[in-house]
């Protein structure tokens, strides 16, 4: 049983880990805006996060958060199956066993820390007294270290155990015919076991059913449809009605301390480039060629939603600023507080034909909570980089 549970986690936890690390890359470490910014020799290979396909970040985070939640019953079952090992005496009898115990501490401590902080982060806003992003990143590497060592040490035992009994026999053996494993050197078999109260197939069915139940409460955050209303584990991933602006919001205008005077008639967008400063009112922006596109907002918390956006292409605004050989662009918001009041983008992201300074959504003006008078919307970017309440765009040239 322990080996079956371990095999499931061996196949799936690397997906959760890799998508989590890719999310760090998507934030743009090349611009110093990934969190944490300074990771020393744990810095991942640098590459520009692609702007195609538009659903890339949506898929990445949907897998990371959704699969992470779905695996919680398997993680708990695996810990239950090996719990006698945590209390064995003497705790260490050799150097090899000491290495195994240290890796087990990193593995169990790391995965529990990642699960607990991850679940709390998607349930509550800024519940921690520390940076969730920083703690989650370092916690991931503690888990990775423990995982790699544990797999290296335990793989021979796992494969030997899996070969000792066919999966077919496990799934066809009833509780009445269930017998204990013979004593071995793993220390997991009770020396005097009580009669079986649950078959092995029953235990697997119980864990699988728990996982399926979590999936029902999770998957709608990404797929949408009728299951979105069931996304109870991701409260900001559910629907909020049927109006043009009734979709998910992580941060309201009030929470960002936005003053209504800031987005009144006096608001102006400033473009900087080789032509110097160009200032445009919202009316002047609306008079420019408008482009409409369906694009997702995909949050690091795992939820996503696809809406229809209308606005001015960023590449048209770069032309207005006199920039012909764009290398990057920096967007600033007029919000006064928040770690994501500005964002930087690569040339490929900025010049993508669907990258917009959005003025409307679903045929209506943006609401203040959704970034009125103007916000950024781009393919495949983290939701926090879809900067709201834009005040300045600095187009940079080679």
Automatic annotation (TrEMBL):
Which source organism does the UniProt entry give?
Answer: Mycolicibacterium arabiense
Entry keyword set: Membrane, Transmembrane, Transmembrane helix
CDD domains assigned to the protein according to its UniProt record, in alphabetical order: SO_family_Moco
- Keyword Amino-acid biosynthesis, does the record have it? no
Keyword Transcription found: no
One protein family per Pfam: Oxidored_molyb
Residues crossing the lipid bilayer are 7-27, 63-83, 104-124, 136-153
Q: Where is the Oxidoreductase molybdopterin-binding domain?
A: 264-397
Protein name in the entry? Oxidoreductase molybdopterin-binding domain-containing protein
Q: Which GO terms describe its molecular function?
A: oxidoreductase activity
